[in-house]
Amino acid sequence: MAQPGEITKIDVDTAHFKGNFPDRCSIQAAYVTGGTEQSLITQSMFWPVLLPEQKLAMDKQFFFEEQVQKLGAITHIRFNIIPDGGVSRLRLWGRLSEKQA
């Protein structure tokens, strides 16, 4: 993310993926400062859940608001697609945090 912020809405879009879309998705998130790329990858497996696992469908746009967990300010997300497949767009909306990275 460009700035630390609190996420309030998520858009997962599987547009144009009709035979190769993921069955489900989830998002984990954390407020991270410093560290290496490898340490981020390892730690991200244990980050708290921002969006619990959600069912997806082909060629459709999904908006999640009520399902978004309130984690406070975050700087990084991990987008999990289960088992695999194509996603056209992932968008997150929220408010900038006064907490600086």
Quick recap:
The chain is mainly beta and 101 residues long. 8% of the residues lie in helices and 42% in strands. It has one domain: Galactose-binding domain-like (Jelly Rolls, Sandwich), CATH 2.60.120.260.
Features:
mainly beta, Jelly Rolls, three-stranded antiparallel sheet, 1 helix, 101 residues
* SSE ordering: EEHEEEE
Please report the first level of CATH classification, the CATH class: Mainly Beta
Judging by the overall fold, what is the CATH architecture? Sandwich
Strand order of the largest sheet: 4-1-6
Report the biggest beta sheet as strand number plus sense, adding barrel if it closes. 3 strands, antiparallel
Per DSSP, the total helix count is 1
Q: What is the SS-derived class?
A: mainly beta
What's the N-to-C terminus distance?
10 Å
CATH topology: Jelly Rolls
Helix content: under 10%
Our Rg estimate from Cα atoms comes to 14 Å
What is the beta-strand fraction?
35-45%
Q: Kindly state the number of beta strands.
A: 6
Summed over residues and divided by their number, the pLDDT gives a mean of 94
Low-confidence spans: none
Number of domain modules: 1
EC number: 3.5.3.4
Organism: Pandoraea eparura
Keywords: Hydrolase
InterPro entries: Allantoicase, Allantoicase_dom, Galactose-bd-like_sf
Topology, element by element:
Layout: E1 5-13, E2 24-30, H1 37-44, E3 49-55, E4 61-64, E5 76-82, E6 89-96
Antiparallel strand pairs: 1-4, 1-6, 2-3, 2-5
